[in-house]
Write a structure and sequence with these properties.
Elements: E1 2-4, H1 13-25, E2 34-38, H2 43-52, E3 56-59, H3 64-75, E4 80-81, H4 86-116
Parallel strand pairs: 1-2, 2-3, 3-4
Helix pairs in contact: 1-2
Length: 117
Amino acid sequence: MAIVDIGLPDMDGIEVTQQFKQHQGKTANPETKILILTSHDSEEAVLAAFAAGADAYCMKDIELDNLLIAVRDTYAGNNWIDPAIASIVLRQLQNHRWQTQSRKPWRLMRCSQSLKN
């Protein structure tokens, strides 16, 4: 398991995560998990970290008990999201769900029109 900060001096933690996951995919042992531990709580940072392959995301001001839970859960192969940033991920999922559902009536309408012809 690797604990990575986004604000690294030479290469940001998102790039580190992405490169590590790409390299890991080429090896026989793709089990190393990455937990982001950072002070960055912007939507852009959170979504970029998960898109890069992060398994967990924690804010640096997290309570020690919650950090230990996050480490244990991530090490066990589960994903973990700090409650402080969970709304960002949920909002993204809800937007994706809405976009997917909003296209369905259009598809049904097109299908029914083609059946009439």
